[in-house]
Amino acid sequence: MTPAHGFPQYFRRPKPIKPHAGQESVWDYPRPPRVEPRPERVVVRLGGEVIADTTDAVRVLETSHPPVYYLPLNAFRSGVLVPVDGTSFCEFKGQAHYFDVVAGGVVAPRAGWTYPEPARGFEALGTRVALYPGLMESCEVDGEKVMSQAGDFYGGWITAQIVGPFKGGPGTMGW
User: Fold this and answer.
1) 116-136 pLDDT tens trace
2) Distance (Å, rounded) from C-alpha 64 to C-alpha 97?
3) Where residue 11 falls among pLDDT bands split at 50, 70, 90?
4) Which of 26, 70, 95, 109 has the greatest number of CB atoms lying within 10 Å of its CB?
5) Mean pLDDT over residues 88-115, rounded?
């Protein structure tokens, strides 16, 4: 469908949800993205086991996306992250490398990624791993279970503190 201004609907910026006190709108996040340290306790479970537990996470904030949390490599139990072949490229962060995440008899293929040689401005990601929350049993931020961002390759972590609408679902590719 093409609205009166001549651009297809999927190129229109959606109407941001107004955040309440204590909330953040993803439409106030920057582009290019930024990295910020976070003090919250982040706990990740897979296969009935805690695979990571840290208060030393960082998150990447980018316009229209829920934050992506990156946890220190040393926050993961030994043997949980299994490197796999293949990479992808982010115009901001550089070349990503992937992990299968394995615990409790469960294998989550290519469910984690890292930037071992991140681009300038993203150096904090060089020793950290992000996870797709939808492929984990659970991801929690300060005890709140995270919802995952829609879409095939988005790794955003949605909590009650974050409002959208969020890129990733049907019809959002042009945002």
Assistant:
1) 999 999 999 999 999 999 999
2) 24
3) low
4) 70
5) 97
The CATH number of residue 52's host domain is 2.170.150.40
Instruction: Give me the DSSP letters along 68-82.
Output: EEEEEGGGBPTTSEE
- Structural domain boundaries, residue 131: 14-162
CB 175 within 8 A of CB 8: no
Q: What tokens does 53 get?
A: 């537990």
Pairing mode, strands 24-25 and 162-163: parallel
Contact predicate 12/3, CB 8 Å? yes
Look at the block and give the residue holding tokens 């976070």: 38
Provide the domain count of the chain. 1
* 3-class DSSP assignment, residue 41: coil
Residues 6+ apart with CB under 8 A from 56: 37, 71, 72, 75
Q: What is the pLDDT of residue 120?
A: 96
